[in-house]
C-alpha cells in the first residue's frame, strides 16, 4: 500500500487536527488531480484509465427510464470472475473482508468489468471544492465540520483520516433523494429459511445541497435529515422515524409507535445501538456505509491502494426485478453486483480511550473519484474480522455526480447478510432532487409535531 502524507497522517491520527492545503497543492486541482482531488492519470498497467471528465447518459434518458440502458458502457463484458478457487490470485487488490467473504461463502463470486471512471461533479461543486482546498475547517473539537463552501468537497487534498471521512459525508447528491419502496432485508439464521424483509418509504434531505455557493456556517449545523415509514412486516408496519444527523453532535431521533399512537424521542438511538426489528444484526451507524457523527473514533489516514469495488453497478438499483429473485440465502445474485478496479483512500478507525463500541476497530475504503465509501470492515472486541460492507457506486443523471446508497453487509461470524438503501425490486426507481420543491425537502418536515401529524392519518 502506498503511503500518503506519512508524517502528517501519523500526527493527525492522534490529534484529529487539520491544516488547509497550500496554494501550490490547491493549484494541482484540475491539472495533475481531478477537480475533487483524485489522481487524474491512469495506473501503471492501465487497468484504471485516466479520468476524462463527467459522462452524461446517452440522449433520451428521463426519470422512470432504465438508468443502465442509457449508460454509455452498458454493453461491457466481464473481464474475469473471482471466487473461492482463485481468490488468492487477486488478493493484492482485495480487502481482508472481501477475501474472507469469498473463501467462506459457497458459490459467492465477483464479476469484474473494465474500469470506467464515470464520476464527475457540476461546475458549482467544482468551484466550491477549489475554494475549500485552502479554507475548509474542522471544529476545535478536532472532529466536527466547522466551515466549508457548499455544496463541495471540504478537503480535496486531505491531510487526515477525519478529513477523508468528511469528504465522504459531504459528497454532492443534490438536495436529497427518495425511495418510493425500499427493501431492508436480513437473510435467515443458519439452518433457517425465514427472512426479515421490511419495506418502507424513505426520504433524505441535505440542506447544504442547494445549487450555488453557500458558507456552511450560515446554515443549520445539519449533515442530513431523513424520514422513513415502514409498510411491512406486520411487526414494523406503521412505525415511522424522523432523524436529524448533525455536523457537531449526536443525532436527534423521533420515533412513532402506532400501537401507542405517540411519538417518542430516542436519545440513545445512535452509534452502535441496534436498529429495531433486525435481531441485533444492524446498528444505527452502519447505514450509508457509515452513519452519524464520527467523534467516538480516532481516524488514521493509512494511504491509497488499488481495490476491486462495486462500481457502475446499476443492477443494485433495478426496481423492475423481483427482490426474491436477486436476494438468495447464500447472497445477492452476482449478476446484480458489478465490480471494477479503482484507487481508494484507506482510513483506519480505532475507538477512543474510555469509549465503548461493539466494533472497536474499523477500516474504510473511499473511492478517490466520488468520495464514496465503497468497502468497510468491522472487527469485534477480540480483534476478529466481523462484518464487511460493500457499497455500489453509480453515476446519478439528475445531479451530474455519483452516489452509492445501496449496500450489502455480510456478518462473517453469523453467516448472514443484510441489504439496504437500494431501489432493488421496489417497482419504482429511487429519485435524486436538485431543487427543494417537495415538502419533504424542508427542515420543518422533520419535527416531532409533523411526524405525529402524518403518522396518525
UniProtKB/TrEMBL annotation:
UniProt KW Oxidoreductase keyword: no
InterPro entries to which the protein is assigned, alphabetical: DUF1329
Organism: Dechloromonas denitrificans
A Pfam cross-reference name: DUF1329
Source domain of life: Bacteria
Protein name: Outer membrane lipoprotein-sorting protein
UniProt keyword annotations, A-Z: Signal
Annotated signal peptide: 1-20
Amino acid at each position: 500500500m502506498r503511503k500518503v502524507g506519512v508524517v502528517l497522517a501519523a500526527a493527525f491520527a492522534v490529534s484529529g487536527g487539520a491544516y488547509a492545503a497550500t496554494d501550490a497543492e490547491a493549484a494541482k486541482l484540475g491539472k495533475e488531480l481531478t477537480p475533487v482531488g483524485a489522481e487524474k492519470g491512469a495506473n501503471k498497467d492501465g487497468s484504471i484509465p485516466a479520468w476524462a471528465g463527467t459522462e452524461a447518459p446517452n440522449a433520451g434518458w428521463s426519470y422512470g427510464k432504465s438508468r443502465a440502458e442509457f449508460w454509455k458502457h452498458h454493453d461491457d463484458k466481464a473481464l474475469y470472475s473471482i471466487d473461492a478457487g482463485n481468490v488468492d490470485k487477486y488478493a493484492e487488490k482485495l480487502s481482508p473482508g472481501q477475501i474472507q467473504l469469498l473463501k467462506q461463502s459457497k458459490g459467492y463470486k465477483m464479476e469484474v468489468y473494465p474500469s470506467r471512471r464515470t464520476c464527475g461533479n457540476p461546475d458549482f461543486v467544482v468551484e466550491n471544492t477549489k475554494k475549500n482546498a485552502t479554507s475548509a475547517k474542522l471544529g476545535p473539537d478536532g472532529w466536527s465540520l466547522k466551515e466549508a463552501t457548499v455544496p463541495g468537497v471540504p478537503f480535496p487534498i486531505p491531510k487526515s483520516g477525519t478529513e477523508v471521512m468528511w469528504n465522504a459525508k459531504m459528497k454532492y447528491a443534490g438536495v436529497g433523494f427518495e425511495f418510493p419502496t425500499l427493501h431492508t432485508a436480513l437473510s435467515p439464521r443458519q439452518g433457517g429459511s425465514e427472512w426479515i424483509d421490511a419495506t418502507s418509504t424513505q426520504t433524505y434531505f441535505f440542506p447544504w445541497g442547494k445549487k450555488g455557493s453557500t458558507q456552511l456556517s450560515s446554515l443549520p449545523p445539519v449533515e442530513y435529515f431523513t424520514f422513513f415509514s415502514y409498510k411491512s412486516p406486520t411487526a414494523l408496519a406503521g412505525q415511522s422515524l424522523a432523524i436529524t444527523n448533525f455536523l457537531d453532535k449526536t443525532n436527534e431521533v423521533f420515533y412513532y409507535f402506532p400501537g401507542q399512537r405517540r411519538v417518542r424521542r430516542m436519545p440513545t438511538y445512535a452509534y452502535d445501538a441496534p436498529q429495531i426489528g433486525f435481531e441485533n444484526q444492524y446498528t444505527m451507524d452502519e447505514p450509508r456505509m457509515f452513519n452519524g457523527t464520527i467523534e467516538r473514533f480516532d481516524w488514521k489516514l493509512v494511504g491509497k491502494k488499488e481495490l476491486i469495488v462495486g462500481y457502475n453497478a446499476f443492477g443494485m438499483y433495478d426496481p423492475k426485478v423481483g427482490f426474491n429473485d436477486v436476494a438468495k440465502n447464500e447472497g445477492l445474485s452476482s449478476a446484480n453486483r458489478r465490480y471494477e478496479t479503482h484507487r481508494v483512500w484507506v482510513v483506519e478507525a480505532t475507538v477512543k480511550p474510555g469509549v465503548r463500541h461493539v466494533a472497536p476497530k474499523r477500516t474504510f475504503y473511499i473511492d478517490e473519484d466520488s468520495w464514496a465509501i465503497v468497502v468497510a470492515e468491522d472487527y469485534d472486541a477480540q480483534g476478529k474480522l466481523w462484518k464487511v460492507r460493500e457499497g455500489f457506486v453509480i453515476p446519478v443523471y439528475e445531479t451530474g455526480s455519483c452516489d452509492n446508497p445501496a449496500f450489502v453487509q455480510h456478518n462473517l461470524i453469523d453467516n448472514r447478510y443484510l441489504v439496504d438503501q437500494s431501489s432493488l425490486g421496489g417497482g419504482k426507481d429511487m429519485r435524486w432532487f436538485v431543487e427543494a420543491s417537495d415538502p419533504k425537502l424542508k427542515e420543518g418536515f422533520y419535527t416531532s409535531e409533523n411526524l405525529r401529524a402524518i403518522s396518525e392519518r
